[in-house]
Design goal:
With 438 residues, the protein is of the alpha/beta class. It folds into two domains: 93 residues, Urease, subunit C, domain 1 (Roll), CATH 2.30.40.10; 305 residues, Alpha-Beta Barrel (TIM Barrel). Helix content is 29%, strand content 19%. It is an enzyme of class 3 (hydrolase). This is Dihydroorotase. Pathway: Pyrimidine metabolism; UMP biosynthesis via de novo pathway; (S)-dihydroorotate from bicarbonate: step 3/3. Keywords: Hydrolase, Metal-binding, Pyrimidine biosynthesis, Zinc.
Amino acid sequence: MSTLFTDATLADGRVRDVLVEGETIARVADAGTLDPADAHEIVDCDGRHLLPGAIDAHVHFREPGFAHKEDWHTGSRSAAAGGVTTVVDQPNTDPPTVTGAAVDEKIDLAAKSLVDFGINGGVTADWDPDSLFERPLFALGEVFLADSTGDMGIEADLFADAVARAAAEDTVVTVHAEDADLFDRAALERAGDGVGRDADVDAWSAYRTAEAEAAAVERALAVGADSGAAIHIAHTSTPEGIDAAGDAGATCEVTPHHLFLSRADLDDLGTFGRMNPPLRSEERRKAVFERVADGTVDIVATDHAPHTRAEKDASVRDAPSGVPGVETMLPLLLREVREGTLDLERVRDLVAANPAAIFDVPGKGRVAEGADADLVLVDLDSTREIRGDDLHSKCGWTPFDGREAVFPELTLVRGHVAYDARGDDEAFGDAIGENVRR
């Protein structure tokens, strides 16, 4: 099968015809120069934008062990509806992905995925690096320097050993950087007894301090330098952490919730806004946004971490950390393009070109001849409100409820339709996702 996209506006503003043959982009040519007779299907883009599919380098699809929160089918549907064509799953499942057998189990579960995927291997005291590195890993990580969901925080000696092993295997190490010794436990003790949206969740932000992140980033970078390892800092929430990574020549990511939400939103969110690292001050949020816009930040990734409403509707001490985000990342960034606060080429790089380069996935992240036909068709003139009930994650809620966003009309994964909202009813494709390390 072949599909011809005519008069498609690319992220850099060029208007092109794009011919997809099978699973690959076969031709990219000046508009009006490709023969429609060469294609089985014609998609008249009529000035709409054709973008490379987003790569979300940080998701938690919760299988095995927590499928009541999310599974590979629901998570990948949510990804496809948000223009994400590749996801990278993190290891804090049950069992944790710290052995070759656990990687094999997760790859089998991912056969339900509508989008392509990578599997990260994790590190605990019980990890088996020999069997782990025999498998087709995407990267090593998320390696936790402090406990989060799954209680996978590790000691300094084990972290150094793991980084050295990853360096020997020429594998990127993704680090969850928080130093628990710098947490303000007194702040958490001051939290009230409210639950859900009545809880004083700002105590969580005061507890897991910005200083704890910055110190852990610097420690991780120093260990990486000693071993010659490539360090990628996950979900940096502070300008200090971003700057430290940049100064050391490491890469970092920022999440949409740290980009668009701050402690000022916690009165409305309550414990639905509890995550690790936590939301920061509005001043820090603005500084993080500036670094995303100016090119200091390498990628945006969601840390998609769904929990049920019942689980989140607890006290600030008991509610699990994390929010969903895989379906709303690209739509929120495209809204910023509409508003003139982000450049479309910058968004393309943040969610597609840069993650493909950092993690060495050469077939992804670009609209170019020979690349995988991972494509997203969007109309920047068409917006709608984000509503949790309209999204496709199993958890059924979002911290961005009520915000305007630009959602995809069509998402292709290697030339296969994964999501189509061009008709009266949206439609999803089949589970054709493959391991990008195949």
